[in-house]
Design a protein that fits this description.
Radius of gyration: 27 Å
Largest sheet: 2 strands, parallel
Structural class: mainly alpha
Strand order of the largest sheet: 1-2
Distance between the termini: 59 Å
Number of helices: 5
Helix content: 55-70%
Shape: flat
Order of helices and strands: HHHEHEH
Amino acid sequence: MKTKKLLLMMMALLLIGLVAACAPAEEPPAPAKEAPAQEEAAPAEEAPAQEEAAPAEEAAPAEEAAGDFTPGAVECIAPANPGGGWDWTCRSAGQVLSDIGLVDGTVKVTNMAGGGGGVAFANVVTQQND
């Protein structure tokens, strides 16, 4: 009984140590910059016009990047046997991508069982980039 309690206590301490070690480091907040007096005296009418122009400028690069991409054959690699959860996930994602028009045609599902996903991972890592 004492052994179980000791083992449980050690596991709890190990878990607490892992959580503390993986926590993000807290960074001190950046010091506030003092605004020049000219910005404070700016009319309120100009500020909304500048705010409305900013989202349009940000959207332009995203539209350009999306317009350059032409999808070819899309393949989803399921790291398990056909009929399992990964196979279903690939087929469902492929169906959604086809339905909303992000891919032309269907998504090819390739099942690669073995090694707890290691076989599929090795295949993806060694493939040439598109």
